[in-house]
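During the second half of the funding period, the structural biology subgroup turned its attention to how the target accommodates small molecules. The most pressing case was 3,4-dihydroxyphenylalanine, which had performed well in the primary screen but for which no bound structure existed. We therefore specified the complex as follows and requested a full 3D prediction, including the ligand pose.
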Amino acid sequence: MMQDTIARVRAEIAAYDLTTAEQLDQFRIAYTGRKGQLADLFDQLKTVPQEERRAVGQELNQLKQLAQARFEERQQELEAASANAPADPTFDYTLPTVPQALGTRHPLSLVREEIVRILARIGFNVAEGPEIEDDWHNFTALNFPENHPARDMQDTFFVRREPGEAEWVLRTHTSPVQVRVMKSQQPPIRSIMPGRVYRNEAISARAHMMFHQVEALFVDENVSFADLKQTVYYFVQELFGNDMQVRFRPSFFPFTEPSAEIDITCLICKGKGCNICKGTGWVEIGGCGMVDPAVLEQSGIDPERYSGYAWGMGIERITMLKYQIKDLRLFTENDTRFLRQFEGVQ
Ligand code: DAH
């Protein structure tokens, strides 16, 4: 009988031991909560014969009020008790606090973000690709011939594979992301692609097996080498200052035609010639060129209609020039005496 159950629950509620906060919580779950006994009883109300339903319903409502009143009263008491709890009289408030050392941004992150900000202002977005890359994106689609030395084990980290499986490498540059971007969208394309790259090199002050590059790619109708030069001038002057000069030196990359190397005024001697720039007054910051029509075609873009430029730069190199850091290994050693010097740099 429903009335018997109500009477039993009422007795339970009245006698429930509500000493601790845990007990109060259990009480709520058992009775007033969404899946508690009261909700159950309200559900059963529809099984009570019509003529009794009104009376039983009233009893149930009273029971609910009782349960809620007990709960709220005890909750308030417990809250008040914890707020007034006496402080530990043995605690010494004059003790010094434990210093909380704040970390600093890594110089490579600072420079990467500055590069992204500078190029975002002229409409470039950021794209990313995988660090474990297949041979096709890293080499083939970029026009590297089958026997190119970069495909050699001496320069590239190959990922172990089962016989017959495709070749996987740790990407040796960020250029494969160009291919991924072009395959996934049609022009206009204005993207930069920062990321980590790997090469099988002995670690020294000037070389590392893991470093960072940032790639830029611009594809549209009527893009010319003049657009490339203008963007590089803007970029270099925003990053290093208005008095910087830029020089394009003819070069070769399999995926650009024509290709050039980008030199800027040596920051150490301001162009006068020193041992860093080997007396030339210039230092190299990256490679660039017009995207080879074969690369556009391989990536699903019509080279008759569109042209594009690309460049790739080393973020470590730019950071070393900007902050006059002389050893590449400092970037990965996590020596806080080095890292703390970048505190507060935006
Ligand atoms: N991927 C080249 C490297 O790692 C750099 C590079 C040169 C990227 C020319 C480019 C480019 O996008 O156009 O040495």
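Two results from this model are relevant to the next phase. The radius of gyration is 35 Å. Residues 107-342 form a domain with the BirA Bifunctional Protein; domain 2 fold (CATH 3.30.930.10).
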